[in-house]
Amino acid sequence: MGNLTIWLTPLWVVSLGVAAAAVVLLVLFGLTWLVSRRTAEAALRLERESILQWISYLVLGLAAFSLLAAPVMPVQQVMSSLKRLPIVGPTTTKVTVPAHTDDQDVPVSFDSDELQSYSFAADQDVVVGVEKGKAYASPMILVQGNEPYQWSPSSKVQRLFNGPVTNLYVTNQSDAPAELTINYNTDVRLKEVRQIPIAAGIILAIYLVYMLLSALFPGVSIIAVATAKEAVAQPLYVLALIIGACLLVFYIYIPYNTFGEDVKMYKDSSLMTIMVLAILVAVWTASVSVADEIEGRTALTLLSKPISRREFVLGKFTGIVWANFLMFVLLGTWMLILVSYKVVYDARETSNPEPNWQLCNAEMVGIVPGLALSFMETVVLTAISVAISTRLAMLPNLAICGSIYVLGHLGPLIAQSSVGQNEFVAFFGQLIALILPVLDHFNVQAAVAGGVRVPPDYLAWAGLYCLLYSAVAMLLALILFEDRDLA
Q1: Close Cβ partners of 49 (under 8 Å, ≥ 6 residues apart)
Q2: Which has the closest alpha carbon to 59: 206, 160, 186, 158?
Q3: Which residues pair with 165 in a beta bridge?
Q4: What pTM was computed for the model?
Q5: How confident is the model at residue 426 (pLDDT cuts 50, 70, 90)?
Q6: Strand 164-172 with 178-186, pairing
Q7: What's phi and psi for 151, nearest 5 deg?
Q8: What CA–CA distance (Å, rounded) separates 294 from 299?
Q9: What does the pLDDT average to over 253-263?
Q10: Sequence-distant (≥ 6) Cβ neighbours of residue 441 within 8 angstroms
Q11: Mean pLDDT over the full length of the chain
């Protein structure tokens, strides 16, 4: 039971955020029902007919887990840190201490155990204490003029503060007023609780973005919903989910022989498996949903209705992207659980000390940026596949997308390698990097597997690149499909 609690606690923390999002969604639905019953019924119908239904099942499952597992989880510590979350952070206080002043009261508010760093800076020598009337008694801090006193966990000086601190008392015995600046940074004791609002925000964003796109682009939404349902209903899609889930479990028990780096290898292998399966399903679905419908005259029937060619192409692309997104959500959630378990499993197999749940959490959460970047790469290749499907059948589509996948990763390496000193090779590498997508931008599996933090700005730039290249590919798809003879 102890091992079970260790690797399930990170999932429980994330489930709290999912449960909070579920409550907010129910409240929003109830308010919408009171204001406009027709709008609420339309939203409920859209949820039942789209991939949101499967995501709703997952959300309800995680919410139920958060309630059922609460008796064996650190509820008190998590809730205590969660309450403190809006309060902590960097704080700066500036005060003027007159000359020949003892024990001037300076209000502050921090818990010593939450301190991440603090500093005092003054233009005159001052003494800072925590008890009135005991300016020169321990603990006290001597701040020399123009020489800041700084503390951090890695510094050699002592923290000096204990327990909650609400007041500091500053003594200035110099002949001139002292300008004192107090900086301190605090964070909650369980930093993992920051994942709760993030998880809630992600779930809410998924539902709101889906509903918003459906309201703004109804024609595209109709095609997208039908395409996503068709993709999810394919035997290949279900087979890919089953194979992916089984491989993720199988990878746990493979002896990588990496001298303690098995978790890194597991994360790298799992990320690559999910991405490759999603790309195969995306290319296959694009061929079946676009090329086969054009060849089978089904597209002509659809376009005879009040649906334009642009809505047809964009709807197909959006539907395939949503189907791939569902695959990443399902397999990604399964991977999060298994990564947390892998940490405990490896510790037991190698007779290492039992890890704490914070270590499992760090390994689990660290793969989320890798999943996001892998999904972006899948979106780019989906856009290219849809564009190719407007003119070519399945086999050429698979061959071209496979070539683009390989060259998209090798192009920058060719241009930057020593072989690139050859003018022809250098030109060819630069041409590939210019025309084809630079998929190496999304390839950070090694960094993610190694526990290196992926900066948020890198994710933002990668997302922007994904949007721009996908937009270019879809523009090409519209041009190719605009004059395509469907008769």
Answers
A1: 225, 229
A2: 206
A3: 110
A4: 0.86
A5: low
A6: unpaired
A7: -135, 140
A8: 5
A9: 74
A10: 462, 465
A11: 86
